[in-house]
Amino acid sequence: MILNLQKMLIPMLFCILLGALHVTAQDGCGPPPRVNNGRPDSTNTFFPVNEFVRYKCNSGYAPSRNSSLRLTCVANGTWEELNYWCERKQCSPKPIDQGSYTGGTFFGDTVTYTCDVGYELTGKIYQLTCMADGTWNPVDPPDCQPVSCPEIDATEKLVFQLSLQYQYQSRVTYSCEAGFSLIGNSFQDCLESGTWSASKPICKDVKCTTPPWDITDGQAMSERKEVYKYKDIVRYQCSAGYQAEPSEIQCTENNEWSATVKCVLRTTSLPRTEVSSQCSCERPPAIEDREGHDKDKPTYACGYRFSYKCKTCCFPVNSEITCQQNGKWSHSPDCAFGATCVVVPVIIIVALIGAIVAFAFYKKIACFAPSGSKTINEPRKNENEIPLNDPMSFKPNDA
Fold it and tell me: 155 FRET partner, CA 20 to 30 A, in 47, 250, 295, 376?
C-alpha cells in the first residue's frame, strides 16, 4: 500500500512543480535588455510583473532627449519596448579672436587651434580635449596675438611715424628734414611674415643742374630752373616729324639726369593736313631790321619753318625758326649790324677820290706842254719820227 502511495505522489508532485513553474513564468520578467553605452540600475535576473528598472549611461554619455526614464515588466512576463539611448556628451565650443579651430566637440574629441594670417599663438597650448564631464582640458583655449616686426632704428635726417607698435598691418611713414630728399620708399608695412615690406629709406642732399634746354629739332618744355631736386622731371618736345627719345628725364639720387634726350625721325609721320589741324602758331616774333617771308599769314601750322632776312648793313642770327607742337616758335631770331657795311663803302669812296685826283693831275701836266708842238694823239708819219710834244725830242742842237 505504501508502494502504491508513492506511485501516486510522484506524478502529483510533478504536476504541482509544473504548475508552479507556469505561474512563475507568467508573474515575472527575466533580466532587462541591454543598451549601447548604458546599463540598468539593477543586476537582478528576475523581476515580478509591474516592477521596473532604471537605466543610466556610461561615463561620457548622456540619455537622448526622447529616452524613457524607466522600463517596466508587464503582465505577460515581458519588458516594455525599450526607448532609451545613450549619446556622447558635447563640450561647448570655445572660439578665439583672430583664430579658428578644427576637430570635434564631443566626448573624446580633440580640437586644434590656429591663428589667422598675421597672428600667432601664445604659449605652447594649441589643442583641447573634450572630457567625460563635458568640459575641456585644458580649460581655456590659446590666444592669437599680432605678429611683430623688428624695431626701427633712427637714422640721421630721417623722420618716421608709426601707426602701431611694430605689429602686423602697422605702417611706418618716412620724411626727411628740410633740404634733403627721400631716397627709397616713403613707407613700410609690417607683413604677416614678421618682416617689413621694403628697405628703410635714406635722406640725401640731391641737386641736379639745368639739363640741355635747346636740342637739335626740339627743346625742353618744363619750367626752367637752376637747381632741380630728386625725382624732378623735365619733358622734351620735338618738331613735327620727330620724336623725343626719351620724352622725359629725371633727376637721380646721383645728382645726374637719367638720360640724354635726342630728337629722332618718326617711323611714320602724320600728313601735313593732320598735323596742321592739331596745332598752330601765331605770327612770328617781330625784330628790328628784318624782313620775313609770309609775314602776313595769321597762323602757321606745326612744323612750319619761317626764315628771316635782314635789311642793309645787317646779317641774320638764327634766321630760321620752327613752329612747335606746343604752339610756340622754337626761338627768337635777330639781325646783327655788320662792320663791312661801313668799311667797304669807305674804301670805294676813297678809291674813287684818288682816281679823280690822279686824273686831274695828269690833265694839268698835259696842259703845260711847249707851244707849236703837236698833240700826242696825232699819228706818226714815220717810225723814226719823234713827236714834238715828247720831252725826249728836245735836244740842244735843235734849240
Answer: 250
Is the pLDDT at 329 greater than 70? The verdict is: yes
Q: What are phi and psi of 245, to 5 degrees?
A: -130, 110
Distance CA 62, CA 110 (A): 19
Residues 6+ apart with CB under 8 A from 305: 320, 321, 322, 323
pLDDT over 70 (residue 31):
yes
Phi and psi torsions of 392, nearest 5°? -75, -10
The CB-based long-range contact list for 208-216 (8 Å cut-off, 24+ gap) reads: 208/232, 208/251, 208/252, 208/255, 208/256, 208/257, 211/249, 211/257, 211/261, 212/260, 212/261, 214/330, 214/331, 215/261, 215/262, 215/263, 216/262, 216/263
Nearest to 263 by CA among 248, 250, 241, 245: 245
Q: How many CB atoms within 10 Å of residue 141? A: 20
Our CA angle for 21, 25, 28, nearest 5°, is 130
Q: With the CA atoms of 34, 40, 46 and 47 taken in that order, what torsion angle do they form, in degrees rounded to the nearest 10?
A: -120
In whole angstroms, give the CA distance from residue 99 to residue 95.
8
Q: Which of 158-162, 240-244, 359-363, 384-388 has the lowest mean pLDDT?
A: 384-388
> For residue 189, what are the β-bridge partners?
171
Give the residue-averaged pLDDT of 41-51.
Answer: 92
Is the confidence at residue 35, as pLDDT, over 60?
A: yes
Whether the model clears a pTM of 0.85, i.e. scores above it, the answer is: no
- State the average pLDDT over residues 143-149: 93
